[in-house]
Write the structure tokens for this entry.
Amino acid sequence: MDTIVRRKYLVYSKKAFWSFVLVLAVFSCSSESNGEGDVIADTEPPTTPSGLEAENITQKSLYLYWDSAVDNVKVKNYSLYQDNKFLVGSGKASYFLENLIPGTEYTYQVLATDAAGNSSELSSPLNVSTMDPLEAELQYDSGNLEDYLGNLLDMVPGISANKYKVPTETDLKQWDLIIDAILDEDITEAVNQAVYLNYQIVEFTDIYSTPNQVYYILKEYDIRLNYWGTYVFSKTPKRKDLVLAAPHVLHDQKTGQQAAYTFRRNVGKALFLSGAHRCDTDESSSCDGTTTSCSTQYAPYRISDVPHNTNSAFQKTTENLFEALPNSVFVQLHGFGKESTDPYVIISNGTNKTPDKDYVVMIRDALLEEDNTLTFKIPHIDINWTRYAALDNTQGRYINGSSDPCSVPATATSGRFIHIEQERSKLRENETGWLKISNALGKVF
Ligand SMILES: [Zn+2]
């Protein structure tokens, strides 16, 4: 029954279609025959596109752009040719090419077409080579870890540099393989997987620590493409549960160096350092929250702001370690501009709930032993305190069990996320302050 009814419907709709075409045909005939000259055939082709150039060339992708062609009516489309074969059409005078072969020369040409179908000549060809494939090989280096990371921090691009690349879903799956391999202590596998994302692993021996310590540093190749940050793993951690992070290395001044100093002294499990300024990109994050960090008015977080974006290597690494290491605690070091009504330190677990094991209180007490002039606010104790409470931090939300860290606040706390906001002079400015944080965390973990 059902089939018959549907068939009938199909017959009717076909009929309706042909009637429509007939009406159209009659209408257009009559309009042509009225002799008013409304319809003049456009036979003039657009000018040939020029100025074809390539930029952002990687092993597998590049960005092509050219000067717009000119037409007596309007340019409708550009046809892009790769090695003399039509590749793709584009309404814009640019195209982003992906899935190219590393170390390969390609020839590109482009032509313009107008609405009437007139095409220009093909532009003069542009020859462009993708970057050579990188060799997947474990790198070795030695020295003082803090100095080594300090050099990397000095190279982090600043505000509005627009360097940070938003990772694709495929990128993040690949990233996960790298982190899995590192946690499995299969460094060869990690090296082999990292190369696909322009990352390498350096086995770094800190010859200035006693005994010498070995670290695996997951860092981008010198020609950076992604700016996803640097991730350090201790081969033999002394504090297995301590994962330190500085997600705002440039904006929250000195927190990158402070984190490197604290990590090295405590030989924590892992250290994450962001690879771009939080305001690197103009594009907004789709996750909750607003900030005045990148503008004078409150505005959404930027997509390069890694603690406010679930779609990042920073988030992925946090999630992976949180699941793989059942007792791990994630301590994020931040910095803020203290106003007269603010304390020197705001420590939050990412919610205003009290966990079973309250690391926030332990860290506060340990810090007070280091410096009894410090003042504190703790959102789950000072229950009306909301400033810098980090309730929209996407790593915090994940660790506290949110169903969707991008858009759903956590309703409980695991106690394994610690967000430390620091005024500048007491803890963040120089080694005197860093030592207090380092000692306090050393005592707690
Ligand atoms: Zn911050």
